[in-house]
Write a structure and sequence with these properties.
The chain has about 375 residues and is an all-alpha fold. It contains twelve helices and four strands; from the N terminus they run αααββαααααααββαα. This is Membrane protein.
Length: about 375
């Protein structure tokens, strides 16, 4: 393989992750979702709980290519690039949460959505912070130093939760991150889907999530440096297996948990991502089995833009009212549910939106439109 050639498997991995993010975020009805497509209620890890950490892992993979340019830039230019990208992604996340900036009131009139209850954190906001912190660690400490720093973050997070979390430090209400988010963000600007103000993309739990980015960078960096080595794939599989085992072992004392993003969860998800990527490298790069890869390449070429558009589409549905029902609910209850039933209809509703967003990505690829933040 040419030394400057990108690994198609990395692009397919990223695209697969984006497609899965759209699928799990757009069921026809949250009442009818098969268990593998639901998040674990608290401790544990479902297939859906792998999607977000896989995306962060893919962000790290992409950084292993993009940050090569940093060596030709001044320190001020590097910092400007990192902080600009971090700020833009964070701002896009906030605006997406606020979009479409209007809502229907009780009288059925469109009114301006006040920022008084605007959620500050979210998926894109966490991606932004993890990218920014991860990029700074890698830039200043280099890959090996960033790896050590990641270990410190994971152990430090565990220590902080254990020391300041009271009698049940890994519970919803005992998690010290909850108090930090309330103090800094304020309850009005937090997620309320758990029955109380709780931020699953909280400030403190963002620190171990940085590990998914740094370790993703490390895997991408390792693959590039060892692309000609006959033992590269074997070493990658060994690393992934060790990380999964370490995550499971650590999970006995520090349960695997997405909502507070435990350190064991970071190791476990990075391990599975590494194993999945190893399989893709074997089939796509070594065996040249590339049938069907273009479907996921389309998502991987404009990942952030397509993810943002998936949120825009769903939120625009809320402005279209048909017989006292928004278009999202109407489309499910009048098309997918009657034809396919509750659960299958809900699942195919999500598949429909994956395909809808794929068509957008396909059109952009045909037009050579690639939006980078």
């Amino acid at each position: 393989m040419n030394q400057n050639q990108r690994f198609l498997s990395l692009d397919v991995f990223r695209g697969l992750t984006v497609a899965c993010m759209i699928l799990v975020n757009t069921p026809g009805s949250w009442r009818y979702v098969w268990e593998p497509l639901q998040h674990a209620k608290w401790d544990g890890c479902t297939p859906t709980d792998l999607v977000f950490p896989f995306f962060l892992f893919a962000v790290g993979n992409a950084m292993s290519f993009a940050m090569k340019k940093f060596s030709t830039m001044s320190n001020a230019e590097v910092l400007g690039k990192i902080f600009k990208r971090t700020a833009l992604i964070f701002l896009i996340g906030i605006l997406l949460g606020w979009f479409p900036f209007v809502k229907y009131d009780e009288a059925g009139e469109l009114v301006f959505k006040s920022p008084a209850n605007l959620r500050i954190m979210g998926v894109l906001q966490r991606i932004a912070l993890c990218y920014g912190i991860g990029a700074l660690l890698i830039h200043y400490l280099k890959p090996k130093g960033a790896l050590i720093a990641t270990g410190v973050l994971l152990l430090g997070y565990w220590a902080v939760l254990w020391a300041f979390g009271g009698s049940d430090p890994y519970s919803l209400e005992g998690h010290i991150g909850l108090q930090i988010d309330k103090m800094i963000l304020g309850e009005n600007h937090m997620y309320h889907g758990e029955g109380l103000a709780f931020e699953p993309e909280g400030l403190l739990s963002t620190l171990p999530a940085v590990g998914n980015v740094v370790l993703g960078y490390w895997v991408g960096w390792f693959v590039q440096r060892n692309r000609q080595s006959p033992t590269m794939l074997m070493r990658l599989v060994a690393a992934g297996s060790i990380l999964v085992a370490l995550g499971l072992i650590w999970g006995v004392a520090f349960p695997i948990n997405k909502k507070i993003w435990t350190s064991s969860y970071t190791l476990y998800t990075v391990g599975i991502a590494t194993l999945l990527l190893s399989v893709m490298i074997y089939f796509i790069e070594i065996r040249k089995a590339r049938a069907g890869t273009y479907f996921f390449e389309v998502f991987g070429k404009n990942p952030l833009f397509i993810y943002v558009m998936s949120g825009v589409v769903v939120r625009l549905y809320g402005l279209i009212i048909i017989n006292d029902q928004n278009f999202y609910g109407w489309l499910y209850t009048h098309v997918f549910q009657p034809v396919f039933g509750n659960y299958t209809g809900s699942f195919l509703f999500g598949i429909f939106h994956v395909l809808l967003l794929w068509l957008l990505g396909w059109w952009m690829d045909r037009k050579k439109i690639y939006i980078r933040v």
